Amino acid sequence: MNKLLLGAAASALALAATVAHADQAAPQAAAPAAKPTYGSYGFDATGMDQSVKPGDDFYDYANGTWAKNTPIPADKSNYGAFNTLDDLSRTRTRGILEAAQSDPNSKIGNAYASYMDAATVEAKGLTPIKPWLVEVNGVTDLASYAKVAAKAARSGVPGPFRFYVAQDDKDPETYILSMMQGGLGLPDRDYYLDAGDKMAAIRTAYVAHLEKMLTLAGEKDAKARAAALMAFETEIAKVHWTQVDSRDADKTYNKMTLADLQKAAPGFDFAAFYAANNLKPAELLVAQPSAITGEAALIAKASVQVLKDALLLASLHAYADYLPDNVASADFAFYGTTLSGTPEREERWKRGATFLKESLGEEVGKAYVAQYFPPETKAAMDVLVKNVLAAMGRRIDALPWMSDTAKARAHKKLAAFTPKIGYPDKWRDYSGLDIKRDDLVGNAMRSNAFEFDYNIGKLGKPIYRWEWGMTPMEINAYANFGMVEIVFPAAILQPPFFDPHADPAVNYGGIGAVIGHELSHHFDDQGAKYDETGKLNQWWTDQDVANFKALTQKLGAQYDAYEPFPGAHVKGAFTMGENIGDLGGLAVALDAYHASLGGKKAPVIDGMTGDQRFFLGWAQVWRRNYREANLRQRLVTDPHAPSQYRTDIVRNFDSWYDAFKPAPGGKIYLAPKDRVKIW
After folding, report:
1. pTM above 0.90, yes or no
2. 98, 397, 514, 566: least buried by Cβ within 10 Å?
3. Are 384 and 312 in the same domain?
4. C-alpha closest to that of 619 among 61, 53, 49
């Protein structure tokens, strides 16, 4: 969800500085404040390439030497600030899990032990998953297929349709069953339909992968069956909605009764499909109706063998990491190496930490925050969030394109925000999840079913307002439109995003802009459609909407022009929400930083002014090197623009021009009339 700051006053940040006394009887002078993690003021100046002019490429100016000198580790598809913190988070998690592993009564310890016991996994072979594969192969007709596909969904195996319980966008105090298109083994419809050589090569490799996986599962006629499944998925891709249409909150809000759905898509027994999971929805939301209709028709005329093979291969992919190495390595060879360019699988302990985050995330999270999230960080974030919210309020008042009526509602929405920082106020209860020390596949299956039941169990209940969509160990943040909330897990609140010993300008450019980004999501091209109660509801005048669209189209055109590879462009419409989040977030954070100075002029540090340090702080958090395959995949599937272009959003800020004095004619230079200002 856009649905993936702190203007802490300088005094709040200074509270974290250490003061030492060598001897209480004979007090000594206070020791110098602790140094920031990066550089002299929180920014790694050694990573700059000052041979590059800021007006040609601000990303390379700020990060070029780092980019040239930083290899991507063999087990990663890309590498940067997020990965650095994720490595730290998982190393810390490993310590927690290894300590718990020695306790036979520890659920997280037993789950981790089951993952780390590679010898048992190899010895069991495919035996743990065989009963499920036999059940899949037992499908004989459309009726039995619908029931097994439903059971697959509960087991975490993607099937023809995705469904889950979430807030009703137009009735946010109510949970409703939502369903979306599915059925593809490749990341997006474009992988099947794009005529370019790169995609054609991936399709060839995919068919070979399907054949290999069928062979590993002991299936016959693997080559012909792989080709048949590819042909089936290609037809599904043709009816799928695009990424751009699928992110449109209005287009994807289609409420139907189950009878309506069955009438619109008669090729599939939806009543039996949902009843198999004890669901009899009176109403449900269908995100892509024409795609569901098209998929149902394709299922109705498909051979039973193709339908079974789709579930069988989806099962092997979903559980590959819990199966013997020949299966796991074959799965990684395609999804990790071919699609993302990653040469090597991660070490087992890293994968084990990820498994625990996904299966018992908040149980691990409790131990994580107790050890690694000091109360001072949460307190400082509280201040920063308040400062950024206040800055957003001032910016709303100054908007030239928004009516007074809409501004009044915008202030109501701003006042309704719930910031969540660090970790949940209420932790998940995993007592109903059965974990066995010698049963990795079973643990994964039971965990998936546990999560499924937890989600489906929300139907008919009051909204879980305490709930988090990420664990404390995530290096991420998110905005939830229906909850009117912004959420910042503990693990992202570290350098380079936030450093209590860094210059405030760098913190505002880092975590401050992240806070502003998530806040601005609630006012992006989709988030702005939700009112102060979290309801999908047009609260602007028609003229406000027209003015807003004119600005967003101008921003979209900027991103459409970015071309990481010849003929492969960023899609401005697809990345629009994130681009607005970056543009608005950076603007709000800069205002909050200026306000935090209390009317005083920022000091010059190492020859850099306050505004220069602010923009360098922004650039630093987006340091990232990509493997080509990964970046190409992101252009198709990731609603975020590549990090270089996220950094270069500065080209729209008059303050950036004042700070760095780029000459007209530079590659990212924009004339004042071409600079986009939305929020």
Report:
1. yes
2. 566
3. no
4. 61
Rounded distance between C-alpha atoms, residue 380 and residue 383, angstroms: 5
Cα–Cα distance measured from residue 670 to residue 224, given in angstroms and rounded to the nearest whole number: 55
Range of the domain at 297: 130-322
Domain end point (choices 287, 322, 357)? 322
pLDDT per residue as tens digits for the range 297-313: 999 999 999 999 999 99
**Helix, strand, or coil here: 608?**
strand
For the chain, the C-alpha Rg in angstroms (whole number) is 26
> pLDDT by residue (tens digit) across 159-211?
999 999 999 999 999 999 999 999 999 999 999 999 999 999 999 999 999 99
392 and 316 housed in the same domain: no
| Dihedral sign (CA 365, 388, 647, 396) | positive
Task: Copy the structure tokens of residue 323.
Answer: 């199966």
Asked whether residue 504 falls in the same domain as residue 380, the answer is yes
Amino acid code (one letter) for 662: P
Q: What is the CATH number of the domain that holds 250?
A: 1.10.1380.10
The domain total for the chain is 2
Task: Please check whether residue 621 lies inside any domain of the structure.
Answer: yes
Q: Indicate whether 84 and 142 sit together in one domain.
A: no
Whether residue 13 contacts residue 504, with contact meaning beta carbons closer than 8 Å, is answered with yes
Residues 571 and 521 in one domain: yes
Eight-class DSSP state of 421: E
Q: Contacts from 78-81 at CB under 8 Å and sequence distance 24+?
A: 78/624, 78/625, 78/626, 78/627, 78/630, 78/631, 79/624, 79/625, 80/622, 80/623, 80/624, 80/625, 80/643, 81/496, 81/497, 81/620, 81/621, 81/622, 81/623, 81/624
Could you tell me if 202 and 338 are in contact, meaning their C-beta atoms sit under 8 angstroms apart? yes
Residue 3 lies inside a defined structural domain of this protein: no
- Residue 400, CB half-sphere, CA atoms under 13 Å: how many? 3
Q: Of the residues 302, 322, 342, which one is the last residue of a structural domain? A: 322
Tokens 């693997």, residue located: 222
Which tokens in the block code for residue 135? 């059940």
